[in-house]
Amino acid sequence: MLRPTRASPRLAGLKPARSQSPSRAGGSTPATSSTKPARKAGGKPQPEYEFGGPAGAAGVMLLLPLVIGFLYAGCGKHGCIRLPEDALDVLAAAPLAPLWDWTAAAVVAGWTALHFLLYVALPGPRVEGVVLADGSRLKYPMNGHLAFWLSLAGFWHGLPLLGCKQSWVYDAYLPLATAACALSVALSVWSHALSYLPNTPLAEGGQTGNPVYDFFIGRPLNPRIGSLDLKACCELRPGLVGWAVLNLGLAAKQHEQQGEVSWSMVAVVGGQLLYVWDALYNEQAILTTMDITTDGFGFMLAFGDLAWVPFTYSLQARILVDHDPRLPAPAVAAIAALGALGYVVFRGANSQKDAFRRDPSDPAVSHLQWMQTKRGTKLLVSGWWGAARKINYTGDWLMGLSWSLACGAASPVAYFYPVYFAVLLVHRALRDDHFCATKYGADWEAYKRRVPFVFVPGIL
Ligand code: NDP
């Protein structure tokens, strides 16, 4: 997502920081803050800003809600941008009222509260995160997979009990999005305020002293209410599962309007459900992502998790409700096959590294070749990681591309995700290359000589 520097979907996570990074959860890698070195300017330490510093952070905070609004206005039942010259007419025709609705606000608040409750109350193993700077380790409940199924069932059966059809989410899409934006701002203000309580662990990157920047990037490292870890819970639960249930409601709307669910809708909703399920099923892998170990919980993560993910990632399903291209079944089958290929690469590469980082002698990875580094850790040089250094990103991107292709030529707006995601992943790959060059020194250069391709073996 928009934040091409580290894990999370999320902005770069305005992305849900997908939780596929090497999992040493329960391992002993200390949470370091090597991403925010101070540099000297005229002898005075200067914070090293991302996003263009305070002005850039302020700009991003203003821009992101507008992007959500633009995507909504750019294609919907009122019309859909097909050519650049259509854009102004379509945008002007967009119904931007009601922007706020108390029922929608209550649903967003209730949905988020439900996920907070499931996080603390559901059974599941409690797993230790990485070692923090003070030597301690926090525990995290691993019950996200159960929460996923329960909340999906709750959505499907609960809304009718409240007198609403599941397709109501389509009718209330705009006020739901506004409420999610408002909630994420409220949560980040609250979390920022809490960070001034004594003895609150802070994220190194969120202590520049500039209030706008620190609010954006995140000041408190692990804000908690009892056993509820706000950052870990928001990372994978209300927004990510919210994306899945929005999609189900959008498919229900298509069925209501057209008497059937199209093959394109099946491919998009099915593929994205798999993506969300996969993140929850592999929940433990988030514990070693930068989002959890290093980033503070501020606007960037709160907005990315709660507003950006559900209301930009559900774009294709929303477009299909009113502008389904009715692609022939063989075309949709080919598109679904592309998505399946992406998933195989994405899951295969991430699982291989995850298993290797947990236990290199695991029979699933013990046959792979690796090189020893002076840092102490090993780098895989065969299997997925010998094919290309960021082949997991390629798999992820292919899935995103397949979802947009399922919208055919309905609108260029439908292609927002693969374009945005390509920018994010390229930037992220550059950043990770920089981090690894810092971590591994000459060993990283040796690894790059052995595995010269980044995204596509033999090509790129
Ligand atoms: P990676 O999973 O690529 O992890 C990078 C780290 O892996 C490196 O810093 C290094 O850490 C380790 N590593 C690199 N090369 C090797 C090797 N050859 N052998 C063993 N370890 C290696 O990064 P991300 O966390 O960015 O991505 C995880 C997943 O999340 C990806 O599939 C990505 O597509 C997805 N994602 C999804 C987003 C979304 O919005 N949907 C946004 C961002 C990411 P070390 O050596 O210290 O272990």
Automatic annotation (TrEMBL):
One of its GO terms (cellular component) is endoplasmic reticulum membrane. Residues 1-49 are annotated as: Disordered. The chain crosses the membrane at residues 55-73, 102-122, 142-162, 174-193, 297-315, 327-346, 403-426. GO terms for biological process: sterol biosynthetic process. Pfam families: ERG4_ERG24. InterPro entries: ERG24_DHCR-like, Sterol_reductase_CS. It is a multi-pass membrane protein. The keyword Plastid does not apply. Coiled coil: none annotated. GO terms for molecular function: Delta14-sterol reductase activity. Pathway: Steroid biosynthesis. It is an enzyme of class 1 (oxidoreductase). Gene3D superfamilies: 1.20.120.1630. It is found in: Membrane. Its EC number is 1.3.1.70. Keywords: Lipid biosynthesis, Lipid metabolism, Membrane, NADP, Oxidoreductase, Steroid biosynthesis, Steroid metabolism, Sterol biosynthesis, Sterol metabolism, Transmembrane, Transmembrane helix. Belongs to the ERG4/ERG24 family. PANTHER family: DELTA(14)-STEROL REDUCTASE, DELTA(14)-STEROL REDUCTASE TM7SF2. This is Delta(14)-sterol reductase.
